[in-house]
Amino acid sequence: MLISIYASVMFLRRLLPFPAGLCSGSNSCPDLLELETGDFAVIGTDITEAARPLLLPGSGCGAGERIVRVPRRLLVEARPHLPAA
């Protein structure tokens, strides 16, 4: 079931032309992508195991979810490119 959900993912665009200064080779490039559905996908460092026990009250991370760290600079630079609605 999960495979069919992921198989239908279609990327529409990157929110930044290129995350300058954030890439360390072709294997580590945090990014923010808009999906065809209007949702967003985040590429970052998986910190789920270390962060899960420290989540704030009211926060949760389900079995099919991961906690991802992205550099602050990436989100700050992406802000003007986020759609208002």
Description:
- It is built from three helices and five strands.
- The chain has 85 residues and is α+β, with helices and mostly antiparallel strands.
- The protein has a three-stranded antiparallel sheet with strand order 1-2-3, with helices on one face.
- Strand 2 and strand 3 (40-43) form a beta hairpin.
| Unreliable parts | none
What structural category characterises the helix and strand content? alpha+beta
Give the overall pLDDT as a whole number.
84
DSSP E strands, number: 5
Report the portion of residues in β strands: 15-25%
Classify the helix fraction into a percent range: 10-25%
Q: How many structural domains are formed by the residues? A: 1
| Spatial arrangement of strands, main beta sheet | 1-2-3
Q: Rounded to an integer, what's the Rg over CA atoms?
A: 14 Å
Count of alpha/pi helices: 3
What are the secondary-structure elements, in order, as H or E? HEEEEHEH
- The shape is globular
Cα separation of the termini = 30 Å
Summary, kept brief:
The chain is α+β, with helices and mostly antiparallel strands. The chain has three helices and five strands, in the order αββββαβα.
